[in-house]
Amino acid sequence: RKLHLPPGNLGLPFLGETLQLISAYKTENPEPFIDDRVSKYGTVFTTHVFGEPTVFSADPDTNRFILQNEGRLFESSYPGSISNLLGRHSLLLMRGSLHKRMHSLTMSFANSCIIRDHLLVDIDRLVRLNMEAWTGRVLLMEEAKKITFQLTVKQLMSFDPCEWTENLMKEYMLVIEGFFTIPLPIFSTTYRRAIQARGKVAEALGLVVRERRRESEKGERKNDMLAALLDEEGDGGGGFSDEEIVDFMVALLVAGYETTSTIMTLAVKFLTENPCALAELKEEHAEIRARKGEAETLQWDDYKSMSFTQCVVNETLRVANIISGVFRRAMRDVSIKGYTIPKGWQVFASLRAVHMDHNHFKDARTFNPWRWQANSGSSSSSSSSSSSVINVFTPFGGGPRRCPGAELARVELLVFLHHMVTRFSWVPAEQDKLVFFPTTRTQKRYPIIVERRDDS
Ligand code: HEM
Fold first, then answer.
1. Is the pLDDT of residue 376 over 60?
2. Strands 339-341 and 334-336
3. What does the DSSP 8-state code read for residue 375?
4. pLDDT bucket at 456, cuts 50 / 70 / 90
5. Which of 15, 60, 154, 432 has CB atoms 3.0–4.6 Å from 392's, for a disulfide?
6. How far is residue 331 from each of residues 73, 88, 89, 183, measured CA to CA in Å?
7. Is 103 in the pocket of ligand 1 (CB under 6 A)?
8. In the predicted model, what is the mean pLDDT of residues 81-110?
C-alpha cells in the first residue's frame, strides 16, 4: 500500500539504524542520535530499530496522543524475550478491562493515603536499617537496589529482610539482567540464565501464595498487595490462579526496582557534581531533623516539606530517567501530523527527547534543579512551546498505563535522600561515567567513600 509515512531512513536491511542507536546510547551524550534526525526530518520520523521499522516521536503532543489512545489506536508491545521474563499475566502485558481493573488495584496500594498511613513508616525504617551497615567504600547502585527490592517485597507480601528475601533477590537479579540482553537475547547465556532464574523466583513466590491461601482459609489476613490479589475476582469469576498472582507480583518487582534505584543513585551523583544544589538540599533536611529527635520516623508533613528535594528528583528524572520512552504498536492505520502510521507498526514515544529539548526546557542539557522552583513544582521553561511544561514533563508516562507507582517512587527517593544527607558525607571513590545503553546507569555502579556525620 502507498502510505504517507513520516520521513526518515530505514537504514540497513534487518539491522536498520540499531547500531547507530546503540553506539550513541553507550556514551554520556546520546542526544545526537535524535538531534540529527529531528533536524533532518522533524520531531516525528521513521527509523528501523531492534528488528522493526519504527515511528519515533520526539514531539510531546504526539506522545500524549499515543499514550492516551492506549487500547484504542495503540497497544503496549514488548518483544517476546521480555514477555517471557515478565510472564503472560503481567500487568504490563494485560489488555482491556482486566488491565483497567488491575491498574487501579495497583494504584490503590500505592496511593498517597496508603503511603502516608502505612508505607512511609516501613520506607523510613528499611532505608535506615540498610544505611546502618554502610562504612568506607559503598557501591551506591547496589545499595539502592537492595533497598528498593526490600521495600517492594515488604509492600507486596509483608516480608522483612531475611535469608529468604536475600536468596530471592539473588535469583531476581539474574532475571533483571535478562531484560538488558537486547538486541539478540536468543544467543545469550545471560538470557538463558535469566529464564531459569525466573522459574526459581516464580516457584518461591508460588509457595508464598499457597501458604497465604491456607492462612486466609483460617481467617488470617495481612494488609498487603498479595492479600488484595487473593481477594480479587479473576475475569472468568472466581479468584485469580496462583500463576496469575505470581506473574503480577513479578511485574511489580520488576517495574519499581531498577527505575527507583537508578534515580536514587543518579540524584546523589548529580548532587555530588553540583555542590550548591547539595548545600541547599542539606539545609532543607537539617531543618527537618532539627524539628525531630534522631530516632524519630519521618512523617507525611516532613515529606511534604521537602520542596527543594522534589526539585532535585524532578531534575534527575528529567535528565536521566531509565525509562527513556515507551514502545507501542499501532492497532490500525493511524493519521498523525499529516502522516500515516501503518497498522502493526512499532511506535516509540520518546519521553527523553522531549525532556532534553531546548524548546521546552531552557538550557535543557544542564542539570538545574532550581528550574522547578518557579511555580512550585512546575518548571521555568522557555516560552516557545504552547503546551505547559507540566504537560511535557512525563517521566512516569501517561494515559491508562501511567506508572501506578509514581507517588511511591517519589516518597522512597525523598526518604532515601533525607537519610543520605543527614547521616553521611561522601566523595566519589573513583571516576564513573553515565551511559544509556543497555540501560541508564553508571559504568561502575557509582562507588563512593562514606563518612558518618558526627551528629547522625
Ligand atoms: C523512579 C521510578 C519510576 C519510574 C521513572 C517509572 C516509570 C514508569 C513509566 C514511564 C511507566 C509507563 C510504561 C508504559 O507506558 O508502557 C511505568 C509503568 C509502570 N510502573 Fe513505574 N516507574 C517508577 C517506579 C515504579 C514503582 C516504585 C512501581 C511499584 C508499584 C512501579 C510500577 C509500575 C507498573 C506496575 C507499571 C505498568 C503499568 C501498566 O502497564 O499499566 N513503577 N513506570
1. no
2. antiparallel
3. B
4. low
5. 60
6. 5, 20, 21, 24
7. yes
8. 91
Which atom of ligand 1 lies at the shortest distance from residue 323's CA?
Answer: 10
**374-409: b or e for each residue (b if 16 or more CB lie within 10 Å)?**
eeeebbebeeebeeebebbbbbbbbbbbebbbebbb
The share of the chain scoring above pLDDT 90, in percent, equals: 80
Protein residue whose Cα sits closest to atom 20 of ligand 1:
403
Which pLDDT does position 182 carry in this prediction? Answer: 63
Residue 450 amino acid letter? V
pLDDT higher at 387 or 87: 87
Segment 186-204 shows an average pLDDT of: 91
User: Does any ligand 1 atom lie closer than 6 A to the CB of residue 30?
Assistant: no
How far is the centre of ligand 1, averaged over its atoms, from the C-alpha of 78 (Å)?
15
Q: How far apart (Å, rounded) are the C-alpha atoms in residues 54 and 352?
A: 17
Q: Whose Cα sits closest to atom 27 in ligand 1?
A: 256
Does the Cβ of 395 fall within 6 Å of ligand 1? yes
SS percent in the chain: helix, strand, coil, step 5: 55, 15, 35
162 is in an annotated binding site: no
What per-residue confidence (pLDDT) applies to 326? 94
